[in-house]
Design a protein that fits this description.
The protein is α+β, with helices and mostly antiparallel strands. Helices cover about 30% and strands about 25% of the residues. It has 5 helices and 6 strands; from the N terminus they run H-H-E-E-H-E-E-E-E-H-H. A hairpin with a 7-residue loop joins strand 1 and strand 2. It is flat, with a radius of gyration of 20 Å. The chain starts with a helix and ends in a 23-residue tail after the last helix. The N terminus is likely disordered.
Length: about 170
């Protein structure tokens, strides 16, 4: 399974595939060459302060990442919203760019970043904090109002949940 993910670095990845690649990759994925599309390596957790090592499961340094975004259509008033899995909502009617497009405008972004995976227990403990729960209720209420203003079905537009949102230590 890990070998399959390592081979995916030059293929099209959706959000879940990309996260799984970063979570379960061997210590290094891709080639560290200037013309490469993807190169990442795991950072050793040795030497992290206990505050961090008790909470962090994995750190991956992404040295090279290529992202291509293509415009396949447009909406007049409301953007198509991806769900928690990155899939676009089908409730928004998209107009095509052309009747039979032979090409679409696109942009290629190259960048880098850091992927941090937190331990499940650390997230569970964080979620139990009163300040986090208080802030979560405020965020959920705002999301609920946004969804109601747009007449979105609660089964299709769901609040992603607090584990997907990083809140500062002092939530006031």
């Amino acid at each position: 399974m890990i070998a399959q993910r390592a081979e995916m670095h030059d293929k099209e990845l959706n959000a879940n595939d990309a996260i799984e690649t970063l979570l379960f990759q061997p210590d290094e994925v891709g080639e560290d060459v200037p013309e490469g599309n993807f190169y990442a390596r795991a950072r050793s957790l040795i030497g992290l302060s206990p505050l961090l090592s008790d909470r962090i499961d994995r750190i991956v340094l992404v040295h090279r990442l290529r992202e291509v975004i293509a415009q396949i259509g447009f909406t007049r008033f409301e953007a198509a919203m991806p769900d928690i899995d990155g899939e676009l909502s089908l409730d928004v009617c998209r107009a095509a760019l052309d009747i039979e497009p032979t090409w679409v405008p696109a942009v290629e972004n190259k960048g880098e970043g850091i992927f941090i995976s937190f331990k499940k227990e650390a997230i569970e403990n964080w979620l139990k904090q009163d300040a986090v729960q208080k802030r979560g209720r405020i965020l959920y209420k705002g999301f609920d109002e946004w969804r109601n203003q747009r007449g979105l079905d609660p089964d299709k537009a769901k609040f992603p949940g607090l584990p997907y949102i990083m809140l500062p230590r002092n939530c006031e």
